[in-house]
């Protein structure tokens, strides 16, 4: 099991959070996703450590960016 | 034909606009809906004058409020 916490920029509402959650949840190996709109915090639980680029791609697919 | 312009409060992004557009489009007689997120402006074209409460209900169903 692995947990990673990242910051997403550009989310403004619950619809935005749902879009990010949906895309990240579809990554192979992901078992849980938590998104906090106000802070931009994205927490991902997975069965193994995830490739950073795969996460970035999923967030961008949803229409947002990872900070940093 | 009738056109009415109202102001919706609480929309923050394109997802919000899409929710409002979807609900208002489903009102019987509506032929066109335009939503501008930044101003909150909602413009509705319809085959006849619409009942104000019906519009209000649709906006609230989407999760937002009409101003005033």
Automatic annotation (TrEMBL), chains A, B:
This is Heavy-metal-associated domain-containing protein. It comes from the Bacteria. The lineage of its organism: Bacteria, Bacillati, Actinomycetota, Actinomycetes, Mycobacteriales. SUPFAM superfamilies: HMA, heavy metal-associated domain. Residues 2-67 form the HMA domain. Keywords: Metal-binding. InterPro entries: Cu-bd, Heavy-metal-associated_CS, HMA_dom, HMA_dom_sf. PROSITE patterns: HMA_1, HMA_2. It holds the Pfam family HMA.
